[in-house]
């Protein structure tokens, strides 16, 4: 019985450590997408401006977005972003 308990703990440890690695990889990918938006037109010799989704949301007064991450045709995660109400009020 003791051997089975140890084996179960070992299996669960491996499972959760693999799960954490996948979550970290997903967070890294989402962060890269979230903070590296570029303009649609880039002029040779001009610096490339990178924007974050939050900056673009504030600029265009978009109160919220939902991002779904699809990799190799399979859904792997999502993120919802909202701006504080004070930033979305049209003046």
Describe the model.
Helices cover 51% and strands 23% of the residues. It contains three helices and four strands; from the N terminus they run αββαββα. The chain has helices at 2-35, 53-60, 85-88; strands spanning 37-38, 50-51, 64-71, 74-82. The strands form two sheets. Strands 1-2 form a two-stranded antiparallel ribbon. Strands 3-4 form a two-stranded antiparallel sheet. It is extended and about 65 Å long. The mean pLDDT is 77.
Task: Compose a concise summary of this entry.
It is built from 3 helices and 4 strands; from the N terminus they run αββαββα.
Secondary structure: number of strands = 4
Q: Shape from CA axes?
A: extended
**What share of the residues does DSSP label as strand, in percent?**
15-25%
Order of helices and strands: HEEHEEH
Question: How helical, in percent, are the residues?
Answer: 40-55%
Structural category is alpha+beta
Mean pLDDT: 77
Q: How large is the radius of gyration?
A: 21 Å
Q: How are the strands ordered across the major sheet? A: 1-2
Biggest sheet architecture: 2 strands, antiparallel
**Number of helical runs?**
3
Detail the poorly predicted runs: none
Q: Distance N terminus to C terminus? A: 69 Å
Keywords:
single chain, two-stranded antiparallel ribbon, alpha+beta, 91 residues
Element layout with pairings:
Elements: H1 2-35, E1 37-38, E2 50-51, H2 53-60, E3 64-71, E4 74-82, H3 85-88
Antiparallel strand pairs: 1-2, 3-4
């Amino acid at each position: 019985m003791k051997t089975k308990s140890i084996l179960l703990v070992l299996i669960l440890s491996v499972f959760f450590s693999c799960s954490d690695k996948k979550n970290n990889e997903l967070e890294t990918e989402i962060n890269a997408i979230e903070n590296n938006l570029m303009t649609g037109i880039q002029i040779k010799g001009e610096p490339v401006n990178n924007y974050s989704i939050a900056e673009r949301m504030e600029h265009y007064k978009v109160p919220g977005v939902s991002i779904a991450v699809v990799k190799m045709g399979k859904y792997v995660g999502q993120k919802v972003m909202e701006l504080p109400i004070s930033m979305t009020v049209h003046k």
